[in-house]
Design brief:
Structural class: alpha/beta
Mean pLDDT: 95
Number of strands: 12
Order of helices and strands: EHEHEEEEHEHEEEEHEHHHHHHHH
Largest sheet: 8 strands, mixed
CATH topology of the largest domain: Rossmann fold
Distance between the termini: 42 Å
Radius of gyration: 18 Å
Oligomer: single chain
Number of domains: 2
CATH architecture of the largest domain: 3-Layer(aba) Sandwich
Length: about 300
C-alpha cells in the first residue's frame, strides 16, 4: 500500500511510523521534524520501541498516488490541509482520527471517500524525529462518505497488521461524541492543572472535577442524539486517564509550547450544543474560558 500522512506530529508520526514497516509511507510535516526523520529515521520510545524509516517531506510529493491519506493535523488546520490535498481528493480514501467534532465534515467537502473514527492511544512529541508512545487505547473506525464495510475492514486489517488494534462501528456518531466527552473531561482539565493524565485520578479533588465535567458533557451528548450512558462513560474516562497516566495531553503540550490549542473543537461543541439545548454546563464553560484566556496570553 501507498500511504500519506498529512500533519505528522505525534499521532500522525506514530501511525505512519508503524505502517512504514510494511508499506510505502510519506510523512508530511514541519521542516525540523522532517529533516530529523530523513537523517536518522523516526524514533518511537515508550510502550513501543522502534526506529522506523518512512519517507518524509514538508509538502505533498508531486508523484504521490496514495491509497490512503491520514489527515492528522490539529482540528483548526483541517480546512487548510484539504487545500494542500485537493488533487488527491478523488483517488484516495481519507481517514481522520483527529480530536473534536467537525473534521470529517470538513474533509468530505473536498474528498469523496472518507472514513472517520476515534483513538485513545496516547502519544507525545518529544522533539524532532522522536515521539513517545505513552498510553495504549482503543481505536474505532466508521464510515462517513462513500465507503462501505469492506473498506472499513480493509483499514482495520491494515492497522492490525502493524499492531494498532481497531474496531469497526455502524454508529460512528455515538463514537465521536463518546470520544469528545472523554477528551473534554481529561484534556482541558489536565492542561489547566498542568499535570499528566494520571494525576487527574490520583488526586481526589481533581477526580471530583473530572467526573463532574464528564457528567455535564454526557448530558449534552445525549441531547444531541448520541447513545451514551453517563455512568459507563464516566467509568471509561477514568480508565483512559489511568491507562495514559504518564501522558501529558496534547492541550497541555500546546500550552507548554505557547501554541494554539484544540479547545474550540473539543469543549467548544459541548458549550455550543448546551446553549442550544439550554443545558447548564458551568464546569465546561469555565474550562473553555480559562484555556482560551491562556491561549490569548501566550
Amino acid at each position: 500500500m501507498e500511504i500519506l500522512v498529512f500533519g505528522a506530529g505525534a499521532m500522525g508520526s506514530f501511525i505512519g511510523g508503524l505502517l512504514s514497516r510494511r508499506h510505502k509511507v510519506v510523512l508530511v510535516g514541519r521542516s525540523e521534524h522532517v529533516d530529523a526523520v530523513r537523517a536518522h529515521g523516526l524514533r518511537i520510545t515508550g510502550k513501543t520501541s522502534v526506529v522506523a524509516k518512512p519517507d518524509a517531506s514538508t509538502t505533498v510529493p508531486q508523484n504521490a498516488r496514495p491509497d490512503w491519506v491520514f489527515v492528522t493535523t490539529k482540528a483548526y488546520d483541517t480546512a487548510n490541509a484539504m487545500l494542500a490535498l485537493q488533487r488527491l481528493a478523488d483517488r484516495s480514501t481519507f481517514v481522520t482520527l483527529q480530536n473534536g467534532l467537525g473534521n470529517a465534515e470538513t474533509i468530505a467537502k473536498a474528498a469523496r471517500r472518507v472514513i472517520t473514527g476515534t483513538t485513545a492511544i496516547g502519544v507525545t512529541y518529544v522533539g524532532p524525529g522522536e515521539i513517545r508512545h505513552a498510553g495504549v487505547g482503543d481505536t474505532v473506525l466508521g464510515a462517513w462518505s462513500h465507503v462501505d464495510e469492506a473498506d472499513l475492514v480493509r483499514l482495520r486489517d491494515l492497522l492490525a497488521d502493524v499492531g494498532i488494534v481497531a474496531q469497526v462501528t455502524s454508529d460512528v456518531r455515538t463514537e465521536l461524541w463518546s470520544k469528545l466527552v472523554v477528551n473534554a473531561s481529561i484534556n482541558p482539565l489536565a492542561a489547566v492543572a498542568g499535570v499528566p493524565n494520571g494525576r487527574l485520578v490520583r488526586d481526589k479533588r481533581l477526580l471530583v472535577v473530572l467526573e463532574s465535567v464528564c457528567r455535564e458533557a454526557a448530558s449534552v451528548a445525549k441531547a444531541e442524539g448520541a447513545g451514551v450512558d453517563a455512568e459507563e462513560i464516566r467509568h471509561r474516562t477514568v480508565l483512559i486517564a489511568k491507562r495514559t497516566a504518564a501522558n501529558r495531553g496534547s492541550m497541555l503540550q500546546d500550552l507548554d509550547r505557547r501554541h494554539r490549542t484544540e479547545i474550540d473543537a473539543i469543549t467548544g461543541p459541548i458549550v455550543r450544543a448546551a446553549a442550544r439545548h439550554r443545558i447548564p454546563v458551568p464546569l465546561n464553560q469555565a474550562l473553555y474560558a480559562v484555556v482560551r484566556a491562556r491561549e490569548s496570553a501566550s
